[in-house]
Amino acid sequence: MDALNITETTGKSYCSKNHGKMHACGHDGHMSMLLGAAKLLTENRDFNGTVRFVFQPAEEHGRGAKAMMSEGLLERFPIDEFYGVHNWPGLPAGSICTRVGGIM
């Protein structure tokens, strides 16, 4: 899901198995975090409300978000709160950076 058209040449044990495709900027981490959150919330439904998981395409420049908004995402799926997760090179491992409003 969400790979880029780039051939991986790292030689790492976890490198892409699909020639000519790779997650060059951490998209595999983004996908893993959201799928992990979906799994945990599905297994532990002790909360009120509805949770929706949005996999945003083309997030680097906001084009994916703009396309999703223009296609009526929030009209089709009304929300009270929206949380985003993104890896951030340079933060120490195990750190979390938060703030209200946009961050990227």
From TrEMBL:
GO molecular function per UniProt: hydrolase activity
Residues that span the membrane, as ranges: none
Taxonomic superkingdom: Eukaryota
InterPro entries, sorted: Amidohydrolase, Peptidase_M20
Keywords in alphabetical order: Hydrolase
UniProt protein name: ILL1 hydrolase
Species of origin: Corythaeola cristata
High-level lineage: Eukaryota, Metazoa, Chordata, Craniata, Vertebrata
